[in-house]
Amino acid sequence: MPLKRRVVASTAIVILWANVHGGTVPIGILVYATFVGLSRAGAVLNIVRRLLLILLGGLTWFLTPITFHAATMWWLHFRTASRMAVFNIEWRPLSIDAGPQFVLWSTLLALTLVAYFFLLRRRNGLLPPLYREPFAFLPAFALLVTMFVMAPRTHAYVLIFSTPVLALGAGVLVQWRRSAALVCACGIVALVVWNESYMPMRYGFGPSRESFPTESVKFIKRAHLKPNMLNGYDFGGYLASELREYRVSMDGRCPLFLDVIEEIGAAETKSSGEADFEKIYKKYNFNFILWPLPAIHPSIPDQHAARAPSSRWAIVFMDNASIVYAKRIPEHAALIRAREYKLLYRGVSAALPALSEQFDADFRKRFEAELDRCLSDVPDNIYCLVGKAAFYRRRGQVREALQTMRLLPAHMLAKPTVQSTLKEMERELW
Asked: How many Cα neighbours within 13 Å face the side chain of 284?
């Protein structure tokens, strides 16, 4: 196929991918650069033409409706101070504080560059066609590193892009007998560090119970809640696979759910959020909400007070990742009578009723009863374990409090604050 046709075809592919995936910058440019690079494999291009091809690959990203709209909103943000939820880049820069994770990823990126230049100079023929062009590889790699620092969700793209280089470099080294053991040792160390930093103390297979609503999905299937469902953005992909009885209201395919995402985002930024949320619920006929757990801290107002006020919505279930609100409608009446949590997660931290004297005995009794019911549903519920341990300690049952705290997930037990509390309890016992 002639080069011009390949450029047109790759542009169309980028547009299609970005609209399906949500306008991801790195993968769009990489798809474009791959097709152009393959079409010119072995040919000699001057620097200007190479840079123009890369620039065109980046510009194709703006041909997608979602990214054009996002860029427009970004411009309006600085012109009119208006803020739209659709353009919200998560900025979580890595730092030395990240510990093993920082060391692992820094080493990975450095090894990728070392392996690339080694292969480029010594074994150029082993590299895929696109990778043989430094003016295609290096800008794409730099872009991926930048996006990697900005958004953790791009880590997978870095791995995909780096794997061929690292694999080929390791393959060449393994051919030298003295290096074989070193390569194997480095691989084992990398796996251990990755496991400890990315999935601390969580072994086995399956989704993380603190990242995805695994137990809430099981509950919703049992309870047969009435459609429609409003779900958290980050849960969308998981729910589309595991909760097929209900349609997701949003997921990573932003263009398909742009109206809901924008409306929810706008309601969150307004002081009159409760009324705005109710308009959205009525418009889309949402009858239950599956949302990430709210942050509870004395200095932070109840994040879900406007989204799901207790007068219209009842908390009926919670796990370590999510909370389920059922709308107060006749179809849910029996379920709400049997399962409603009236006190938990309503702006009250788990241990506060046991530690503070601002609550009366009746409130404490009802709060602890809900904690017990919560633990019967999800025995490893972090919020409820901490709350129950605090009540044990208030009554002087230090041994029971210590045993309850030790039921927390291992990565929680490793936190300094938890370690300090455990040591205090152990001293009280002795």
From this structure: 24
pLDDT digits (tens, 9 = 90+) for 4-24: 555 555 555 555 554 444 444
Whole-angstrom distance, CA of residue 358 vs CA of residue 120: 69
Cis omega (within 30 of 0) for bond into 381: no
Query: Cβ–Cβ contacts within 10 Å for residue 376, how many?
Result: 10
Q: Please, how many CA atoms are within 13 Å of residue 418, restricted to the half-sphere of its CB?
A: 18
Q: 3-state DSSP call for residue 397?
A: coil
pLDDT in tens, 305-343: 788 999 999 999 999 999 999 999 999 999 999 999 999
Q: What is the DSSP letter of 141?
A: H
Query: Which DSSP helix (H) or strand (E) runs through 25?
Result: helix 25-39
The model's pLDDT over 31-89, given as tens digits with 9 standing for 90+, comes to 555 555 545 544 445 555 655 655 665 555 455 454 555 455 444 444 433 333 333 33
Q: Which ranges of 94-245 would DSSP assign to H, the alpha helix?
A: 100-122, 134-150, 155-174, 177-198, 214-223, 236-242
Task: Report the alpha-carbon distance of residue 38 to residue 35 in Å, rounded.
Answer: 5
Query: Facing residues of 314 across strands?
Result: 326
Tokens 């002795």 correspond to 430
Contact criterion met (CB below 8 Å) for 261 and 250: yes
Residue position matching structure tokens 């309006």: 76
Q: Tokens 């450029």 — which residue? A: 7
- Would the pTM of this model clear 0.85, i.e. be above it? no
Buried residues in 347-365 as b, exposed as e (16+ CB within 10 A): bbbbbbbbeeeebeeeebe
β 229-231/313-318 pair status: unpaired
Helices (H), 224-355: 236-242, 258-268, 273-284, 333-339, 352-355
